[in-house]
Specification:
With about 325 residues, the chain is an alpha+beta fold. It is about 40% helix and about 30% strand. A hairpin with a 2-residue loop joins strand 6 and strand 7. It is globular, with a radius of gyration of 21 Å. About 30% of the residues are buried.
């Protein structure tokens, strides 16, 4: 077997396994895991493969592995070496081929998406005195200006309030981002309305890809669609710069990712645990919860239930 085509080591971290409905976490179970995340470069290089690959050595104190963004075609070849496994999530990992150029990217969007982009940008520009105010932060000195402004926006976002995934402000994470900026591996943007920041995007490079790491906007400005406008302007910057091969929308799906991407790869997240009694109980609970959520989603697509849901929302 070959080494895993992933950015992984065998360091053990205590990770919370979530029982989650949408953005709300109902409960968590903590396990000591070795995380094996596939980068987009690794996903694209490995997506056609089916042969087994070697996971990093599992330390004695670890409960198991969490493998993320494993290409679905490689699932059958995942050798757990006696561990018990459950697929926690299936999704398409979307990306934009930056080498194709801005014209090709825009042409690949639907007509309604293109007209929507123009309409949203015009509306936001009008609210800001007829001009968009988007500022770029691409080195360590600029990042020092960006971070406190973006943190002020992040504190109001649902990403931070509900998901705990806002722009980090702990000293170690900030140092890491500063180091990436020093190495020309960070790109960040802020969108301002009347001089105040209302949306941010902070991306870091992994291989030839720029990752969609930290994003958010002030919900008080939802009516202006600042996140979508900022995304489009950031993409235009990246096409013009021609520094990166791809823009990586990372794990998980969503309308925003589907709309702006040019391609995607079917991936899975797999939890693999030692076959202890506690771990078996954990996996049984997760399987039951995930199965119930999948059944609820399928039921919600029934026309009668969809109509009822719309009535309730109104």
């Amino acid at each position: 077997m070959t080494a895993p085509p992933a950015t992984a080591d065998n360091s053990v971290r205590r990770l919370a396994l979530k029982f989650q409905i949408g953005a709300r976490t109902l409960a968590t179970i903590s396990r000591r895991l070795v995380r094996v995340p596939f980068s987009l470069d690794a996903v694209l290089a490995s997506s056609a493969g089916t042969a087994p690959f070697a996971l990093p050595a599992l330390p004695d104190e670890a409960d198991g592995y969490l493998v993320t963004s494993l290409p679905e075609t490689m699932l059958a070849g995942l050798d757990g070496n006696g561990l018990i496994a459950v697929v926690r999530q299936r999704y398409v990992r979307y990306h934009v081929d930056l080498a194709a150029g801005e014209a090709a990217w825009l042409a690949g969007l639907s007509g309604s998406a293109r007209s929507g982009i123009k309409r949203k940008a015009k509306k936001l520009a009008a609210a800001n005195g007829r001009a968009l105010d988007i500022r770029r932060y691409h080195d360590s000195a600029a990042f020092a200006v960006f971070h406190p402004l973006a943190r002020a926006v992040s504190a109001a976002t649902y990403q931070e309030k509900l998901l705990g995934s806002g722009l980090p402000d702990d000293a170690a994470s900030v140092r890491d981002l500063e180091s990436l900026a020093d190495a020309d591996r960070l790109r960040a943007w802020l969108l301002f309305v009347e001089g105040a920041p209302v949306a941010y995007l902070c991306c870091t490079a992994e291989g030839e890809s720029l990752r969609y790491d930290h994003v958010g906007h002030d919900p008080a400005h939802n009516y202006l669609s600042p996140g979508a406008v900022l995304q489009v302007e950031a993409m235009r910057d990246l096409f013009a710069e021609a520094r990166f091969a791809r823009f990586d929308f990372t794990e998980g799906e969503g309308q925003h990712k589907r709309q702006f991407s040019t391609a995607g790869t079917a991936c899975v997240d797999v939890l693999m645990l030692r076959p202890t009694l506690a771990n078996r109980a954990t996996l049984a609970a997760l399987r039951g919860f995930d199965g119930a959520m999948a059944s609820a989603k399928r039921a919600a697509t029934h026309p009668a239930l969809a109509r009822l849901a719309r009535k309730i929302r109104r």
